[in-house]
Amino acid sequence: MNNKTIDELSIGDRAFFEKTVTEADVCLFAGISGDMNPAHINQTAAENSLFKGRIAHGMLSASLISTVLGMYLPGPGTIYLSQDLRFTYPVKINDTIKAEAEIIALDREKCLAILKTTCRNQNGKVVIEGKATVKPPKTKL
Fold this sequence. Notes:
Number of helices: 4
Order of helices and strands: EHHHHEEEE
Strand order of the largest sheet: 1-3-4-5-2
CATH architecture of one domain: Roll
Mean pLDDT: 96
Strand content: 25-35%
């Protein structure tokens, strides 16, 4: 398991995680979160919605950003402090989402990193954009 301490990070460092969002993911997330909005779980109702079919929960897609931060950059031991998000395009079941994070600012004195966060679908369309603040681990694992 690799991680980077604040002293090993540089502006411009990047990492990503990619996953295809499945029917099972949407159903499990609905059960875990309690969000049973018909847009996510009812095909008939969703067909009459703005999106003309079921979409994945926005926070399901956003959770892939947590994977990038907690597993890859800075990695295990990272404390996720804040996240702003803007949902820009719907994620459908079977879309492949690539969550990316790029370090845009570092405060070594306060042990903080600010990262630009973006999720794109398999066509390169941005579905989520935002910014995260994390406290990188102090020691290597």
